[in-house]
Amino acid sequence: MTLLLKEITSENWEECIQLQPSEDQEHFIASNLYSLAQSKFLPNFETLAVYKDQAMVGFVMFGIDPVDSQYWIYRLMIDSNHQGKGYGIETMKQVIDRIREKPDTTNIMVAYHPENEAAASLYEKLGFKVVGKASWGEIMSCLSMVDGST
Fold this sequence. Notes:
InterPro entries: Acyl_CoA_acyltransferase, GNAT_dom, MshD_Acetyltransferase
Number of domains: 1
Largest sheet: 7 strands, mixed
Strand order of the largest sheet: 1-2-3-4-5-7-6
CATH superfamily: Gcn5-related N-acetyltransferase (GNAT)
Shape: globular
Protein name: GNAT family N-acetyltransferase
CATH architecture: 3-Layer(aba) Sandwich
Mean pLDDT: 92
Domain N-acetyltransferase: 3-145
Pfam families: Acetyltransf_1
GO molecular function, one term: acyltransferase activity, transferring groups other than amino-acyl groups
Strand content: 25-35%
Order of helices and strands: EHHEEEHEHEE
CATH topology: Aminopeptidase
């Protein structure tokens, strides 16, 4: 499977904000519009569109959290019309590879709603280990880059 991660630009941001998760996932994730706005206040974060061929199928946002100086994948959203095709796991593998190439990367963190079983399963398949519950109520998981996991 070939997916391509491309920068969100003035040419594609409106297409990005039209992407939607499935109805049963809407309460688990912030909108892409909110995420793009949030990224303007997180200077160490990257926002990328996920493309399959010429079609934008998803969105991802990641970077160094200003509070704990760890890499966090804040958002992963595959449009409802493109779910169930393996795009989420392939996107995550590409993001993990990008982060692994950054200097001084020791851990990659994610957080997800406790009822989001799809996210829990995806992150577990990728080697993330649950490390606790965040103060805001989400489950936090960590992928260590130090021990050679992926």
